[in-house]
Amino acid sequence: MSLAHNxxxxxxxxxxxxxxxxxxLRQPLEEHAVTIARSAMTLHFPANFMLVAAMNxxxxxxxxxxxxxxxxxxx
Length: 75
Hints:
It is a single chain. The chain is of the alpha+beta class. It has a single domain (1-75), classed as P-loop containing nucleotide triphosphate hydrolases (Rossmann fold, 3-Layer(aba) Sandwich), CATH 3.40.50. The chain is built from two helices and four strands; from the N terminus they run E-H-H-E-E-E. A hairpin with a 4-residue loop joins strand 2 and strand 3. The chain is elongated, with a radius of gyration of 17 Å.
């Protein structure tokens, strides 16, 4: 996140990320910084970024495809 400072952090296949990982993004997005605390010291890194994410409209990836049928139950 700190490497995306003043830029864009792009997450592809958003549903593939575990919920707890996505929850960890909340603090840096709100505070514009990443804080790493260890027993000996605490470090702060800048992380002012725009979060952009992409995902398929369904799990199989064929929703709306004119040549392949959606295999999902909601398809």
